[in-house]
């Protein structure tokens, strides 16, 4: 079957090349048959990619170690759920995932635009086909996911334990869907530039795809943060790691894009800016993939040195050079006649929000690539740490949240002083009340940036709530509906608008969590023995007893051994029990010995978190198994050649010994206020985005009536 | 104010904001950065008291845990130079002998004294160690 898989890729590459050729020929000569053929070739490529993925996934599911990828990334004892995810934990598997998503997205957009955008679509098809061909040629030429082993091992290496977390199942596909999704508006922008149709048509056709890509990318980033918080044993959700930054940058520029295209739709302005943004978003998405895959920057995500870094760099260079040349050659077509009427207008605030978002991206870009920049400038490799990022991004984030409060309620063109007063009287009062309340009742003043953020968050939420209430009241008066129906009707009639409001509220809630948890968390690292107590934040914590288990990991990660602890945390008269653990995975290194390999392999933290709306209590343990070492060494010597049953008994005895005579263990305990609101805010953003994406009844109606109109026209012309 | 002058003013304001940001970016990043050095770099020219980021592989057989303190040696990726490191704080999950690490601190009398919680381990490319050694 591996041969069939490789063939799918090769035929897929030829199909992509054909699609590009046919579309280009059709676009230049106006030959419709060639255009249709090119489009269908993309559908065909999607079919081939689905087939290739099914073949690879079934090899993973049945643990066919003749496949190199399966032998390296999976094993018979890897839980089924994680066998399925192992594909994108590998380099070539993730390339296949990219090609799969790319071909599906391209097919969807080309199907939806098959009757419109006759000029632009063939060029866009060619661009999409070229991007797909690039990824396919990487797989065909350098990184074939269907590479086979002449002597398949009996057992595979297994999935990296760190990746055994439910969020890791969906995090990479989400990110990739986001990256890939932005290639759609990019391709149509290029098409529009080539045929000099720089109006808002290409934007209307691909706006939804940009929103979908934005939603997926954002959700992917959130899931990555959640994984970091609940799986990596350090307790944070964001570390300004190069790969995290690489996913945030296209999201920021994409956010700017979905705001500023509204200005082009409504006022025909910012055309150059919009095509530049969509090009930058796509280039940053490519750069994100490149960073993960090239190992060029030191990162915890740098999955080893890669063979395809150079190819990526060349492709990115070509995309930048080609797009820039195209934009420059079309500058005359991109000039807009409309001018900014007033700084107090929605378009001016959109522009401002764009500048801040792009500024944030520039800051993050500079910091991420600083090691390379400093090496180029001063010859020594230096890097900037999280404090630098925090210092520069905090003020920009504050401005951004303030803009999110003001922008949506400003009218287009020009705001009147009376209108402004009417729109902001109540929200400003609420924000001021928040400020006074926080100053009087809490110690929020210890961190001025956080205090400012809390007030701005209150402002955003107040503005959104006020807008919704006003809209619903107006609708109630017009339609006479009761409140809930008026509200539902209001949202379904203006999905983009109220979806957008909800996204703003969600982002505000998210920043509430970030501001509170980053400034006011209490973190303690201690080394204690059973029976000892220590204080962490508002909690008195006692290390009650050690736990140790063999072959009974409850999280379903497939770890044979785990050591842990039972902690009781007292806060006032409330008592909670935490059971942090650490899982040990057998090492594949024979030098560690038959028994020792079970203790000296990979180990991952199984963090225990008491999630709460007011605060999270987070605990991780790092058991010190150094004291077991003499026993392990002895067991290696005595029972190294014994049968499985005896070895299992010996391991059980060592595990038992840890439970009965536990040595001191290291703990990290974090009392983190309001951190849950980050995830709640993320969920609200997702909900708002889904509302905005969902097709509105009007557009469906319009589509149906236009089809009827076309049919009627045909009938009439025939008659 | 006539519209043309207004536009010009806006342009000047926007440009100066951009220049200010760029200046802040360059200034703060160079002053806040720490240099990444390999053990051989550091042995050759380390100034006492200056903060460095040490990168390299954890030398085989060098990891020694004494209570809170972790001692290990960092070796050049290619080459033999090693530097002993003393470290306290959280040890990342993938920390192992032979893995690539980054740790910040200062060099004091031939020993690299690491800042608390500054240890970063690069993810292993493969779960197996066999492959890593052969390449």
- Helical segment count of chain B: 3
How many domains of chain A, as an integer?
4
- End-to-end gap of chain A: 56 Å
What is the CATH level 1 assignment of the largest domain in chain B? Mainly Beta
- Number of domains in the coordinates of chain B? 2
Helicity level of chain A? 55-70%
Number of strands of chain A: 11
Low-confidence stretches of chain B: 124-135
**Mean pLDDT reading of chain A:** 87
User: Widest sheet of chain B: strand order?
Assistant: 2-4-5-7-6
Question: What does the overall shape of chain A look like?
Answer: globular
Give the class of chain A from helix and strand content and strand pairing: alpha+beta
Main attributes of the structure:
heterodimer, A: alpha+beta, 4 domains, 6-stranded antiparallel sheet, 4-stranded antiparallel sheet, 24 helices, 10% strand, B: alpha+beta, OB fold (Dihydrolipoamide Acetyltransferase, E2P), 2 domains, 5-stranded mixed β-barrel, 30% helix, 32% strand
Give the arrangement of secondary structure elements:
The complex is a heterodimer of chains A (719) and B (135).
Chain A: H1 2-29, H2 32-61, H3 68-73, H4 80-85, H5 91-112, H6 120-141, H7 166-181, H8 183-194, H9 201-230, H10 242-267, H11 271-294, H12 309-329, H13 331-334, H14 346-368, H15 370-378, E1 382-383, H16 386-406, H17 417-441, H18 448-479, H19 483-493, H20 495-520, E2 522-528, E3 533-536, E4 539-550, E5 561-571, E6 574-578, E7 581-584, E8 603-606, E9 608-610, E10 615-623, H21 629-639, H22 644-660, E11 665-673, H23 676-693, H24 697-718
Antiparallel strand pairs in A: 2-11, 3-4, 4-5, 5-6, 5-7, 7-8, 9-10, 10-11
Helix pairs in contact in A: 1-2, 1-6, 2-5, 2-6, 5-6, 5-7, 6-8, 7-9, 7-11, 8-9, 8-11, 9-10, 9-23, 10-11, 10-14, 11-12, 14-16, 16-18, 17-18, 18-19, 18-20, 19-20, 20-23, 21-22
Chain B: H1 3-32, E1 34-37, H2 39-44, E2 52-58, E3 64-66, E4 69-75, E5 82-88, E6 100-108, E7 111-114, E8 120-121, H3 130-134
């Amino acid at each position: 079957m591996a041969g069939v898989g490789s063939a799918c890729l090769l035929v897929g590459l030829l199909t992509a090349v054909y699609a590009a050729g046919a579309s280009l020929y059709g676009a230049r000569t106006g030959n419709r048959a060639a255009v249709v053929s090119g489009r269908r070739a993309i559908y065909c490529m999607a079919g081939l990619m689905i087939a290739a993925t099914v073949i690879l996934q079934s090899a993973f599911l049945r643990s066919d170690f003749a496949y190199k990828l399966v032998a390296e990334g999976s094993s018979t004892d890897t839980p089924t759920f994680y066998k399925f995810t192992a594909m994108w934990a590998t380099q070539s598997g993730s390339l296949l995932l990219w090609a799969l998503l790319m071909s599906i997205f391209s097919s969807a957009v080309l199907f939806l635009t098959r009757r419109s955008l006759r000029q632009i679509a063939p060029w866009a098809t060619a661009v999409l086909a070229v991007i797909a061909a690039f990824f396919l040629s990487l797989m065909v030429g350098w990184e074939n996911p269907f590479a086979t082993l002449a002597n398949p091992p009996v057992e595979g290496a297994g999935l990296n334990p760190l990746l055994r977390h439910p969020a890791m199942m969906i995090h990479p596909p989400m990110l990739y869907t986001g990256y890939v999704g932005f290639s759609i508006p990019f391709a149509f922008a290029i098409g529009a530039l080539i045929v000099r149709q720089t109006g808002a048509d290409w934007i209307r056709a691909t706006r939804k795809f940009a929103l979908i890509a934005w939603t997926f990318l954002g959700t992917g980033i959130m899931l990555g943060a959640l994984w970091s918080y609940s799986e990596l044993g350090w307790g944070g959700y964001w570390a300004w790691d190069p790969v995290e930054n690489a996913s945030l940058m296209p999201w920021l520029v994409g956010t700017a894009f979905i705001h500023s295209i509204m200005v082009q739709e409504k006022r025909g302005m910012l055309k150059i800016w919009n095509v530049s943004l969509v090009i930058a978003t796509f280039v940053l998405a490519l750069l994100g993939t490149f960073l993960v895959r090239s190992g060029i920057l030191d990162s915890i995500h740098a999955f080893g040195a890669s063979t395809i870094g150079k190819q990526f760099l060349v492709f990115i260079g070509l995309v930048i050079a080609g797009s820039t040349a195209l934009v420059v050659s079309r500058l005359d077509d991109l000039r807009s006649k409309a001018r900014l009427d007033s700084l107090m207008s929605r378009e001016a605030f959109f522009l401002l929000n764009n500048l801040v978002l792009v500024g944030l991206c520039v800051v993050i870009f500079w910091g991420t690539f600083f090691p390379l920049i400093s090496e180029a400038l001063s010859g020594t490799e230096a890097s900037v740490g999280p404090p630098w990022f925090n210092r520069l991004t905090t003020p920009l984030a504050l401005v951004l949240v303030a803009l999110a409060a003001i922008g949506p309620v400003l009218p287009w063109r020009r705001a009147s002083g009376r209108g402004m007063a009417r729109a902001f009287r109540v929200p400003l009062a609420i924000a001021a009340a928040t400020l006074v309340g926080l100053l009087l009742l809490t110690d929020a003043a210890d961190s001025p940036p956080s205090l400012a953020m809390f007030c701005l968050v209150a402002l955003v939420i107040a503005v959104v709530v006020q807008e919704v209430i006003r809209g619903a009241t107006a609708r109630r008066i017009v339609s006479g509906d009761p409140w809930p129906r008026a509200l539902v009707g209001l949202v379904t009639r203006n999905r983009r608008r109220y979806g957008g409001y909800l996204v703003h509220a969600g982002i505000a809630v998210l920043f509430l969590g970030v501001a509170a948890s980053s400034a006011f968390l209490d973190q303690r690292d201690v080394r204690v023995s059973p029976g000892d107590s220590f204080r962490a934040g508002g909690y008195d914590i006692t290390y009650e007893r050690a736990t140790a288990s063999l072959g009974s990991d409850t999280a379903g990660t497939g770890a044979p051994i785990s050591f842990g602890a039972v902690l009781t945390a007292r806060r006032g008269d409330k008592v909670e029990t935490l059971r942090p653990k650490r899982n040990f995975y057998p090492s594949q290194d024979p030098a560690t010995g038959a028994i020792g390999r079970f203790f000296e392999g990979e180990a991952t933290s199984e963090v225990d978190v008491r999630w709460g709306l007011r605060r999270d209590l987070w605990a991780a343990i790092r058991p010190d198994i150094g004291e077991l070492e003499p026993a392990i060494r002895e067991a290696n010597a005595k029972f190294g050649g014994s049968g499985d049953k005896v070895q299992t008994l010996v391991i059980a005895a060592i595990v038992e010994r840890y439970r009965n005579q536990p040595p001191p263990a290291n703990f990290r305990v974090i009392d983190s206020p309001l951190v849950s609101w980050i995830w709640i805010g993320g969920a609200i953003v997702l909900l708002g985005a889904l509302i905005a994406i969902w097709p509105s009844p009007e557009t469906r109606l319009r589509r149906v009536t236009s089809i009827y109109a076309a049919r009627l026209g045909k009938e009439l012309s025939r008659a | 104010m006539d519209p043309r002058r207004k536009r010009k003013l806006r342009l000047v304001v926007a440009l100066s904001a951009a220049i200010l940001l760029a200046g802040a970016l360059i200034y703060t990043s160079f002053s806040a950065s720490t240099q990444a050095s390999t053990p051989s770099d550091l042995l050759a020219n380390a100034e006492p008291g200056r903060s460095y980021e040490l990168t390299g592989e954890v030398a085989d057989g060098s990891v020694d845990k004494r209570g809170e303190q972790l001692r290990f040696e960092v070796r050049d990726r290619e080459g033999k130079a090693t530097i002993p490191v003393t470290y306290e704080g959280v040890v990342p999950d993938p920390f192992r002998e032979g893995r690539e690490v980054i740790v910040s601190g200062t060099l004091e009398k031939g020993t690299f004294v690491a800042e608390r919680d500054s240890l970063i381990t690069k993810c292993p490319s493969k779960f197996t160690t066999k492959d890593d050694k052969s390449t």
